[in-house]
Design goal:
Largest sheet: 2 strands, antiparallel
Helix content: over 70%
Distance between the termini: 41 Å
Number of helices: 6
Length: 215
């Protein structure tokens, strides 16, 4: 009888272990596929925007040196300084993509799927933090740089010149931010622990404070 019970318990344990391993395999595969795809998207985003900003910097500098107004108007001091300020802004934007590119880490595979899941969850959280940081830095950095350009042109030329330059170049920042990969940020935000704090009576004239969580 004891032998039958022991065999039955062993069978249950083996079944549970196999089910757990299968669950870990599925989650590890899903997480890894997501991170690989997100890493590729981040690389493309960095490259495309670096090329665009580089082309904008070179193009505006070339127009300034050649003394050509790309809008078709006269090449006066307003046009010249607008082009040089635009060159500076585009160069700073290019530098941000070269010096601080968005990179998504993809951990190496281990010999245990459940260990992989733990490592991959941490990598997803790190990817989410990086995407969030990149998104806001792109927004804030672009705004700061464009405000600086607006100020320089307003002081040196006129409010109208500064305002036109700002209106033309400011939308580039949000466009860059909203085209960057953000799926890891979304998944990380959905997976984060959600804690609830509450209070309840204990039936004896007292009370208790409790914290509940989901993870």
């Amino acid at each position: 009888m004891l032998r039958v019970v022991a065999s039955f318990a062993l069978a249950i344990a083996m079944t549970a272990s196999a089910a757990r391993a299968e669950t870990c395999d599925r989650e590890a595969s899903t997480l890894r596929a997501h991170l690989v795809e997100e890493a590729q998207r981040a690389k493309r985003w960095n490259t495309i925007w670096a090329i665009l900003f580089g082309a904008a910097a070179v193009g505006q500098a070339a127009f300034a040196v050649a003394e050509v107004n790309p809008t078709g108007g006269d090449f006066d001091d307003d046009a010249k300084e607008t082009l040089w300020v635009g060159t500076g802004k585009a160069t700073l934007a290019l530098g941000s993509k070269v010096v601080l590119p968005l990179r998504i880490p993809v951990p190496s595979t281990t010999t245990d799927a459940c260990t992989d899941v733990k490592v991959l969850r941490e990598a997803l959280a790190e990817a989410g933090r990086r995407e969030r940081r990149s998104f806001w830095l792109t927004h804030i950095g672009g705004t700061v740089v464009n405000l600086a350009g607006f100020t320089i042109l307003t002081v040196r030329r006129s409010f109208k010149t500064g305002a036109i330059s700002f209106a033309i170049s400011y939308p580039v920042g949000p466009a860059s931010a909203y085209t960057q990969p953000r799926r890891s940020w979304t998944q990380w935000r959905e997976r984060r622990d959600s804690w609830v704090v509450g209070a309840s009576a204990d039936g004896e004239g007292g009370g208790r404070l409790w914290i509940g969580g989901q993870w």
